Amino acid sequence: MIALRRLILCAALGLGLAPAAAAQPTGADIYKQRCAMCHTSKAGAKPGIGPNLAGVYGRTAASTTYNYSAAMKKKAAVKWDKASLDAFLTYPGKFIPGTKMVAQLPDKTMREKLIAYLVTLK
After folding, report:
1. pLDDT(11) > 90
2. Nearest 5°: phi and psi at 26?
3. What residues contact 91, with CB distance under 8 A and at least 6 apart?
4. Superfamily for the 25-120 domain
5. What does the pLDDT look like over 12-65, one tens digit per residue?
6. What is the pTM of this model?
7. Distance CA 79, CA 118 (A)
8. Paired strand residues for 79
9. Of 100, 98, 35, nearest to 67 (Cα)?
10. Three-class SS string for the chain?
11. Is 114 in contact with 30 (CB distance < 8 Å)?
C-alpha cells in the first residue's frame, strides 16, 4: 500500500501536478520555453529563425541583421519598449499585420515576466 502511494505521488509530480508555487515560470523560463527555439539572445550571435533578441529593449524595430518581413520594415519607427513589446507579444499579427512572427503570448502575467527578462538582455 505504501509503495502504491509513493508510485502515485511520483507520477503526480512527474505530470506537473506539484504545488502551484513550484510551477510559476520566470521570465527566463518563458523565454526558453516560448522564444529560444527561434531566437538567440547572445550579443553578436547570428540570428536564428527570428532575429537576435540581445538588446531588443530600446531598439528600433527591424534595425539588426535579419531578413525582416516587409511589414516589419515598414514599422521601423517602432521602438521596442514595454508597451510596444506587450502589444506585439499579445498578438503580433494585429500589432504588425504581415509580420513573420506568429507565436502569441496572451497571458498578461507571462508577458510581463518575459518583457522584464528581455529588458535584461544586452
Report:
1. no
2. -90, 175
3. 104, 106
4. Cytochrome c-like domain (1.10.760.10)
5. 444 444 455 567 999 999 999 999 999 999 999 999 999 999 999 999 999 999
6. 0.81
7. 14
8. 60
9. 100
10. CHHHHHHHHHHHHHCCCCCHHHHCCCHHHHHHHHCCCCCCCCCCCCCCCCCCCCCCCCCECCCCCCCCCHHHHHCCCCECCHHHHHHHHHCHHHHCCCCCCCCCCCCHHHHHHHHHHHHHCC
11. yes
Report d(CA 2, CA 105) in Å as an integer. 42
Region of residue 84 (left: phi > 0; alpha: psi -120 to 50; beta: else): alpha
Report domain extents, the chain: 25-120
Q: Which of 83, 92, 82 is nearest to 51 (CA)?
A: 92
CB 63 within 8 A of CB 56: no
pLDDT at 98 over 60: yes
User: What is the Cα–Cα distance from 49 to 72, expressed in whole angstroms?
Assistant: 15
